[in-house]
Amino acid sequence: MAKIDFRLNGVPVSIETQLNRRLLDVLHEDFDLIGIKEGCGEGECGACAVLFDHEIINSCSVPIANCANKDIVTIEGFSNTSRYKILKDAFEEEGAVQCGFCTPGMMIAAESLLNKNPKPTTEEIKIGLSGNLCRCTGYNMIIKAIQRAAKVGEGKW
Amino acid sequence: MKDIRESILKTDGDEKISGQAKYVADIRMANMQHAITKRSTIACGEIKNISYPELPEGYFIVDHRDVPGLNVVKIIFDDMPVFTEKAITYLHEPILLVVGPNKEKVKEIVNNIQIEYIEKEATFEWKNSAVQYHFDKGLGKSIFENADKIIEYDYETGYQEQAYIEPQGFIGYLEGKDKVTLIGSIQCPYYVKNAVIQVLNATEENVRVIQPSVGGAFGGKEEFPSLMACQLACAVKKVKKPIQLIYEREEDMLVTTKRHPARIRFSAALNKEREILGFKIYCAIDAGANIGLSGVVLSRALIAGTGAYTIDNLDCSGDVFITNTVPNGAFRGFGAPQMYFAVEMFMEHIALDLGIDSLAFRRKYLAKQNDLTSTSGTFRDPIIMNEMIEKGMEISDYKKKRIEYSKEKSTKGIGMSFFFHGCGFTGSGEATHIKAKVRLKKDKDNTVYILVAAVDMGQGIRTTLRKVVAQILEIPIDNVIFDFPDTDKVPDSGPTVASRTMMIVGGLIGRAAKEMKKRWTETEFIVEKIYEQPEYIKYNDETFRGDAYPAYSWGVNIVEVDVNPVTYQPKILNTWSVYDIGKSIDDRIVLGQADGGLTQGIAYGYLEVMNHVKGVIKQKNMTDYIIPTAMDTGNMETVIYENPYAFGPYGAKGVGELTLVGGAPAVVYAIEQAINKRIHKIPATPEYILEMMNDGKNRL
Ligand code: FES
Ligand code: FES
Questions:
Q1: Which of B204, B239, B255 is the last residue of a domain?
Q2: Residue B539 lies inside a defined structural domain of this protein
């Protein structure tokens, strides 16, 4: 057991825990952040994606030991932003959500992509989403949603 | 009034995007215990002895001795035990559960249980047939006696894994002293409930099944969850605390049901005029260790044997083979994807052998209204395939591309598949077996409740059923409530499978809403409806004769690929689809089904590889089992045609499976053109394509 301090969704937090636990489990179980999903547990599907010092990472692949003093943002934290609202509307209007299990991870991926590249081409969106698996939508509507968000939210990213 | 097909925002979009929708793993309960399954390490044999480590306080073993009722998972045949007592029939067969408060400790105990086996020689060849079907149409195989020429080819299809992103899982707990409640990622609440009743020897009232948000299913959560639920229910009875049984991805991939591998032989009898007189079709599928739903899968495959074509004389037969491998089961399409690949390629290969234009040849045999189906039933409703094909060719510029890509040097190809899908259960299933029951309830404050057991697993039924009711009653959709199914509250409207939910359950709900509208001034009442097969639909399950389905949805898929000349990796450039689904209840939701289904269908044809070596599945996680990423998709365009079916709500027929079944033949047609070689096997991977290229034969 050890004490780890980090920022979670903008708030400093501190937790006493085993250092080898996955960030995924700490967030999902200890902080009850259910927007983080476990799809594969092996860094393949992106359902557990969070922003880690502004970079997208799969929280199933990160031990909590690596999180000391890091800035971690989950879908719960992101959902308080105006960029979230733009992406959310775009996802709904384009039909990008079916079962929804991949969706929070897709939102994080979209935010991360637009942060780096506010006007991505279709090909760049596809590359940006390539770490997130969706079995329901065939990605078409997710890609369109991100295009729409980029247009509607011009200047926000 | 608005046309119902005009899209509205999905009613559960908000909670899903914000991550607040609760899937089974997100449900917390005080004192939650964890269960992990101990599984066999051999594929065939018997358990000789089990030695257990000392169990710490609060940890339990749950096995066949803890099954109060029948140790059988109720599916169709009584051939799947809840926990095996002795006989091992496949690798990773469940033997027992370990349950306790600490997951790591539970894992450790599972690993420390030693099992000795008497190993027997396992069977992996397809030689033990458990189900045999045969039927014919017209003159059957005797037509072959008149043949001027006979053409025969073999086709083969592989496994496909549903790969829903949310793995399978349940939570179970006791309510009061005797009642077992199960919350699970499932498609069929009443399948689970009925299976658990039999296993616990319980009364109706003492088993309750609830569905939370479900993270994809695609058939994979049709019958398999019943096994988990039965195990967990026994554990809950014994441990008397809430228990979570959630699979990790690897366990899910190794032990859950998959699409049946198939081997299909087609023979065509042709006359002097190079016309088809009849077909002989033989289809073998690998069930794995239990029959499960395999017989039903085989019958759907055989019924789809002539594809979208009318062939007057048929001899159709098939076997379900039992092998010592993981049991296979339901997967979107349910036997049809295997058969459509085979029949579409066969039609093309016949045309090539005869040296005639394959498109004209295929179109000549397209089914028309009033033609006899493969089971000698009648296509009663109008078939508008010709119009749909013209549309598909127009939006894809098919003719021009087909000619351009036929040049020797071209690495591109374009292909088009034709198909239909029978909506609802095969044969008399709906009328005699399922007997769907729905309720619509009106409250004092004019709120209307939809009470059905239909599950939203992403396909959007929580939105579309509400839309149907709101539109018929002319009330705001917010006044129509459709909660997650709970068997304590909703009647058995049947499983969420077989492209039946909108057409059958929605049809009943629509009729209930019409009745409610007439009685709207009454303050508080319930309307109940029970499914009755349209009277003219008659089918004999034994002889495979009659109308196998009340209605058919139809489709055209066009796929354009570029095959890398060095790596032979196909790249999907564009896809176009045209569907007749009766009536779209929400265009955006239908288009979502179209995109997702086609992506799975295409991937089945060229990308998704799963195989076993001596019963060991080689792809045990999402790293090994490749499903499409965003990079693997092309541009997609879909056109929806309306062609209403009298008994569907607003004329709606089935959608879900239709969008998958044509993907494989369309992409393989395109690959064939790109590589100028014939393909007889899917997935058409780069390795297989290379093999074809090195083979001097098999030119188009
Ligand atoms: S659960 Fe972390 S990447 Fe799949
Ligand atoms: S919406 Fe189901 S996995 Fe993406």
A1: B255
A2: no
Indicate the length of chain A as a whole number.
157
Q: Give the distance, in angstroms, between the CA of residue B68 and the centroid of all CA atoms in the same chain.
A: 32
Name residues 3-32 of chain A within 8 A of B (Cβ).
Answer: 28, 32
| Ligand 2 atom, smallest distance to A39 CA | 3
* Tally of structural domains, chain B: 3
Rounded CA gap, B67 and B71, in Å? 6
Is residue B23 a contact partner of residue A101, using CB atoms and an 8 Å limit?
yes
- For residue A97, the chain B residue with the least C-alpha distance is B13
| CATH at residue B295 | 3.30.365.10
Residue ID of nearest Cα to ligand 2 atom 2: A99
Would an 8 Å CB–CB cutoff place B105 in contact with chain A?
no
- What is the domain extent for residue B661? 262-426+545-695
Under DSSP, is residue B280 helix (H, G, I), strand (E, B) or coil?
strand
- In the predicted structure, residue B1 carries a pLDDT above the cut 80: no
Q: What is the pLDDT of residue B77?
A: 80
Strand A71-73 and strand A2-8: the pairing is parallel
Q: Residue B428 above 90 pLDDT? A: no
Identity of the residue in B22, B458, B631 whose CB atom sits nearest the CB atom of A126 = B631
Are B490 and B555 within one domain?
Answer: no
* Nearest of B599, B570, B629 to residue A130 by alpha carbon: B629
Instruction: Read off the pLDDT of residues B640-680 as tens digits, 9 standing for 90 and up.
Output: 999 999 999 999 999 999 999 999 999 999 999 999 999 99
Q: What's the sign of the alpha-carbon dihedral B483, B444, B469, B533?
A: positive
CATH number of this structure's domain A2-77, picked from the four choices 3.40.1090.10, 3.40.50.800, 3.40.250.10, 3.10.20.30: 3.10.20.30
Residue to mutate (ligand 2; options B165, B249, B591, B627; most atoms within 8 A of CB): B165
pLDDT at res. B76: 80
In chain A, where the domains are located? 2-77, 81-152
Task: Express each pLDDT in B623-638 by its tens digit.
Answer: 999 999 999 999 999 9
Sign of the alpha-carbon torsion through B548, B346, B163, B110? positive
Task: Verify that B517 and B580 share a domain, yes or no.
Answer: no
| B534 pLDDT tier (thresholds 50, 70, 90) | confident
pLDDT for residue B611 is more than 90: yes
- Whether B77 is covered by a domain: the verdict is yes
Same domain, B512 and B551: no
Domain A81-152: give its CATH superfamily: [2Fe-2S]-binding domain (1.10.150.120)
Q: Does residue B533 have a pLDDT over 90?
A: no
Task: Give yes or no: residues B387 and B450 share one domain.
Answer: no
B54 and B19 co-located in one domain: yes
Secondary structure element (H or E) that encloses residue B163, with its range: none
Query: According to the model, what pLDDT value does residue B695 have?
Result: 85
pTM equals 0.97
Q: Quote the strand ranges of chain A, DSSP E.
A: 2-8, 11-17, 49-52, 55-58, 71-73
% of chain B exceeding 90 in pLDDT: 95
The pLDDT tens digits of the residues spanning B251-298 come to 999 999 999 999 999 999 999 999 999 999 999 999 999 999 999 999
- Looking from the CA of residue B16, the nearest atom of ligand 2 is 1
Pocket lined around ligand 1, Cβ cut-off 6 Å: A 38-41, 43-48, 58, 60
Q: Is residue B145 part of a domain?
A: no
Q: A2-77 and A81-152 share one CATH topology?
A: no
B700, pLDDT greater than 90: no
Share in percent of chain B as helix, strand, coil (round to 5): 30, 25, 45
Question: Could you tell me if B415 and B560 lie in one domain?
Answer: yes
Say if residue B190 is in the same domain as residue B335.
no
Whether residue B228 is contained in a domain is answered as: yes
Give me the helices (H) in B130-223, please: 189-200
Say if the Cβ atoms of B630 and A142 lie within 8 Å.
Answer: yes
Partners of A125 on chain B (C-beta within 8 Å) are 630
Q: What is the ipTM of this complex?
A: 0.98
